[in-house]
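[job 4471] stage=fold_predict status=RUNNING
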Amino acid sequence: MISVRLRKIKNLEARREKCTDLRIPYELKSFDFRTADTEKRFLNIDEFFGRNAPVVMEIGCGKGQFACEYARRNPDKNILAIECVPSVLVEACEKVKNEKIENIRFLEMKAEYLPLFIKEKTISEIYLNFSTPYPKNKHECHRLTYKDFLDIYRKLLADDGFIAQKTDNQGFFEYSLESFSQNGFVLSNISLDLHKSDFEDNIVTEYEQKFAEMGMPIYRVVARLK
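[job 4471] inference complete, writing structure tokens
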């Protein structure tokens, strides 16, 4: 288990309560990965959005800067933002409320639990923006491009779906390229310095802005199922 010191925020529970209309509820009472296939409790995503539309997922949405801008640019899509840190998620929810964005909902969940609640082949796009790189080899299994996570994404993605990853960490990016390639994905749109490329539709995240201002290159890749 990796210990992470989380920033405490005032009135967290009261603030979370005010965002219940944006947070999709679920139950995870007892869970054993060995019996995961018998514990699935699929959510009716269309019901929570109040419509049927392509579902785009951001895993590790942080304070919601990417999700909000993506939602504004794509009003015809439903954005499902995943975040496991309550104090971070509540700030993303409040941002959505303040900006009156209608096509975003949140799941307070770790990525490994997604197959229990999301039906296969229902996600059109997955975004991994500045995921924790976990540079130590002993923590490899926590990287969101580790083979076990790629198996999850493969199940969730529609046949024509894709994963887009951005990171500032060169080692993690190289690891991800290899992991994608070895686990049934085809790579395209590889950028070793995104902000100096001709890519026009980039949405800058909180971390990305910070790193770019420091002069650090931003790495990006799109991975599609073979």
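[job 4471] summary: The first strand starts at residue 55 and ends at 59.
[job 4471] exit 0
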